[in-house]
Design brief:
34% of the residues lie in helices and 20% in strands. It is an alpha/beta fold. It folds into two domains: 3-92 and 203-427, Adenylosuccinate Synthetase, subunit A, domain 3 (Adenylosuccinate Synthetase, Chain A, domain 3); 103-200, Adenylosuccinate Synthetase, subunit A, domain 2 (Orthogonal Bundle), CATH 1.10.300. Strand 15 and strand 16 (352-354) form a beta hairpin. Helix 3 (107-120) packs across helix 4. Bound molecules: inosinic acid (IMP).
């Protein structure tokens, strides 16, 4: 099975970084296919800690190709800092490749992100402020800069001459902080970007497909989560990229029939950052307790994450849209000693029981969670002993919780994560290559 995708089943922050790091050891190539540096993951290799936002996680492993696909938006100033961070730690950047079709996040995108949020007033999305939405807007409006443009100076000059004045007018109109650059200073900045990464820019679709033709193992690393998908998420409280299954193909340039396995990463409870509906949210002390026990604070923005019970209506939506062939469950340890664990299995909306996640935000705001109560597990502090014993030695209540999820989602939990370290993992895979 040469391809595996890892996708978050909720609103991001499910622990994909740890699972990707656990599984990418045997992959030859790791590909990011959507999003930008709104993502954030911490990777620990030996005694080195890497905090990455834009670079694919595989970049820190020697001998692997780490690909930024065409569906990603790239902030090259921030990427330069991450590249430096990895180099300082003794890592190599030899494996990094960037799609010539990937769009570039410009300074004005960040300023416009802030200005648009202000305009929304009480309808604020709560973005990460990284300029993600405005960059994807320009892609769709056909006025974006692509990485490949850096290699063509005349094209760059021509595009700058009409895009920059347009953006300056727009910023003035929206009351955004103004941008001091001129056509000339922007051109020289972009030529410096070319010096930095010009030799890494290529047609990554060809690269990925040729690797697959050669029988190489390719891992597609999702960012954010299924519920933040621009089409299928809780619109408008979403990010601006395709985070679900289809995004893998459009964002990396592979055909659907090249996809083999999709592992959905499900946190044992639910979190989300920013605004938007959250039916199983815990607004009281228990929510705060989960936030602090689970360390639920954003890697990118430091914002506290909203916390709530596991919502299987959400996970079913994600599984259907991403084609999960199995799941990895993370952060079960955070639920240790919680006496009762309600699991949301449906919503009650206007007196009706609803099993599928609705599109309407107003319906979602009326939705009441329908819970099935599961028993919690107590007194299981020694994670290493638990892991040594394997799945069958896990507390019965924990196994029931896991198996309830498996039955509901109709897929097996191949990976059970009981802590942040690689060895705090129970691996139930049968014949996977990774
Ligand atoms: P944007 O992607 O910065 O435009 O933000 C849009 C929404 O997606 C906001 O609610 C963000 O908090 C959320 N978001 C973006 N990236 C992440 C992520 O990596 N984890 C969790 N939420 C995210």
């Amino acid at each position: 099975m040469p391809t595996l995708a890892i996708i978050g089943a909720q609103w991001g922050d499910e622990g994909k970084g740890k699972i990707t790091d656990y599984l990418d050891e045997n992959a030859d190539m790791i590909v990011r296919f959507q999003g930008g540096n709104n993502a954030g993951h911490t990777i620990v290799v030996d005694d080195k800690v890497f905090k990455l936002h834009g670079l694919p996680s595989g970049v820190v492993r020697p001998g692997k190709l780490a690909v930024i696909g065409n569906g990603v938006v790239v902030n090259l100033d921030d990427l330069a800092e991450e590249i430096e961070q990895v180099k300082q730690a003794g890592g190599s950047m030899d494996g990094l490749r960037i799609s010539d079709r990937a769009h570039l996040i410009m300074n004005y995108h960040k300023k416009l992100d802030g200005a648009e949020e202000k305009y929304r007033g009480k309808n604020v999305v709560g973005t990460t402020g990284k300029g993600i939405g405005p960059t994807y807007q320009d892609k769709i409006a056909r006025i974006g800069f692509r990485a490949g443009d850096l290699l063509e100076e005349d094209l760059l000059k021509d595009k700058i001459s009409f895009i920059l004045p347009y953006k300056k007018d727009l910023m003035a109109m929206l009351g955004a902080e103004s941008c001091s650059c001129t056509n000339e200073t922007l051109l020289s900045k972009m030529l410096r970007w070319k010096d930095l990464i010009g030799d890494r820019i290529c047609d990554t679709s060809v690269l990925i497909n040729e690797a697959l033709d050669d029988g190489k193992k390719v891992l597609f690393e999702g960012a954010q989560g299924a519920m933040l998908d621009i089409d299928h998420g809780t619109y408008p409280y979403v990010t601006s990229s395709a985070t679900c299954g289809g995004g893998i193909c459009t964002g990396s340039g592979i055909a659907p029939n090249r996809l083999d396995k999709v592992l959905g990463v499900v946190k044992a409870y639910t979190t989300r950052v920013g605004e938007g509906p959250f039916v199983s949210e815990l607004t009281g002390d228990l929510g705060k307790e989960l936030q602090s026990k689970g360390g639920e604070f954003g890697v990118t923005t430091g914002r506290g994450r909203r916390c709530g019970w596991l919502d299987l209506v959400v996970c079913e939506h994600a599984s259907r849209l991403c084609g999960f062939t199995s799941i990895g469950i993370t952060k079960l340890d955070v639920l240790n000693d919680v006496p009762e664990l309600p699991v949301c299995v449906a919503y009650e909306i206007d007196g009706q029981e609803v099993k599928h996640f609705p599109a309407s935000i107003s319906k979602l705001s009326m939705a009441k969670p329908v819970y099935e109560n599961m028993k919690g597990w107590k007194g299981w502090k020694d994670t290493s002993a638990l892991i040594k014993g394997g799945y069958d030695e896990l507390p019965g209540e924990m196994r029931e919780y896991i198996e309830f999820m498996e039955r509901y989602l109709k897929v097996k939990a191949d990976i059970i994560s009981l802590g942040p370290d690689r060895d705090e993992t129970i691996d139930r895979r049968n014949d996977w290559w990774y």
